[in-house]
From TrEMBL:
Residues 222-296 form the Cation efflux protein cytoplasmic domain. InterPro entries: Cation_efflux, Cation_efflux_CTD, Cation_efflux_CTD_sf, Cation_efflux_TM, Cation_efflux_TMD_sf, CDF/SLC30A. Belongs to the cation diffusion facilitator (CDF) transporter (TC 2.A.4) family. SLC30A subfamily. Pfam families: Cation_efflux, ZT_dimer. This is Metal cation efflux system protein CzcD. It is found in: Membrane. The chain crosses the membrane at residues 26-50, 56-73, 94-113, 125-148, 160-183, 189-208. Keywords: Ion transport, Membrane, Transmembrane, Transmembrane helix, Transport. It is a multi-pass membrane protein. Residues 27-217 form the Cation efflux protein transmembrane domain. The keyword Transmembrane applies. The keyword rRNA-binding does not apply.
Amino acid sequence: MGFGHGHGHDGGGPAGHAGGRHRWRLAVSFALVAGFFVVELVAGLLSGSLALLSDAGHMAADVVALGAALLATKIATRKDTTGRRTYGSYRAEIFASGLAVLLMLGVSVYVVTEAFTRIGEEVEIATGPVLVVGVLGLLVNVAALMLLRAGSAESLNVRGAYLEVVADTVGSLGVIASAILIATTGATYWDTLVALAIGLFVAVRAVFLGRQVLAVLGQHVPEGMDMSDVTTELEAVGGVAGVHDLHVWALTSGMHVATAHLVVVPGADSQDVLVRAQQVLREQHRIEHATLQVEDEPSQACHEVTW
C-alpha cells in the first residue's frame, strides 16, 4: 500500500485573511459609534425617551461588538509562538461574532421588557432633542454601514459588526419616527411601540447571525458548498479510483479546510494526483488548505471509522 500526503494554503497571513483586510473599516466604525453613544445616552436620559434609550443600549452593544471584532482581527493575524495552535487563532473572530449575538439578544430582551412595563404609563418625552439625536444617529450609522458593507460579504466577524450597525440604523429610524408621531399626535405610546419593534428586530437579526456562528463552530460544510459535487470532481481527477473520508469545514470566514483519502488506480503517479486534486479544491471550491492522503486501497482503519 502506498501513501502520499499533501497540503496547500495561502500562508495564513493578513493578506489572505478576510477579517485582517477589513480591520481599518472596523477601526473607523468603532470610533464613530463609540463617540456618538455618549451623546445618545445623555440625550435619552434627559428626554425620557425609551426608544432613544433602547437605541443607546443597542449602540453600547455596538461599541462592545465592534471593539471585540477589532481585537479579534488582531488576535487572528498574530503568529502562534506556543506551538499548540496549529491552525492559528483565526477562530477568535467567530467567538467575537458569538459575543455580538449575545449582546444583541441581551439588548433585545431588555428593550422588550422595558416596553411592556411602560404599557399604560403616561411619560413626558422631549420630542425635539429626540428627533435631533435620532437624525444624527442615522447619519453615524449610515457612515458605518458604508464602511463595513464591503467586508460583510467576506468575513463573518465583519458581518456580525455590520448586522449590529444595521439593527442600530433601524433603531435610529424608529427613534425619528417615534419623535415625529408623538409630536404630531401627542400620544406617547408611540415611543413604547417603536421600542418594542426595535427590540424584536434586533432579536431576529441576532438569531440569523447566531445560526451562522454555530455552523462554523459545529464544523458544518461551508454554506453554498455541495459535498456530492466535491466528491464527483475529485473522482474525475485522472488516476483517482475513489474518494472517502472527505471532510470540509470553515476555520473562519473565507478560510475553508478539507481532508480526504484518495484511492488511486495501480501505477498512478501519487504526487501528480495530489497536485491536481488540490488544484480542483482550490479553483472550484476556494479550499486553500487541503490535507489529502493517497492510497492504493482503503485501509482497515478507514473501514473501522464510524464518523
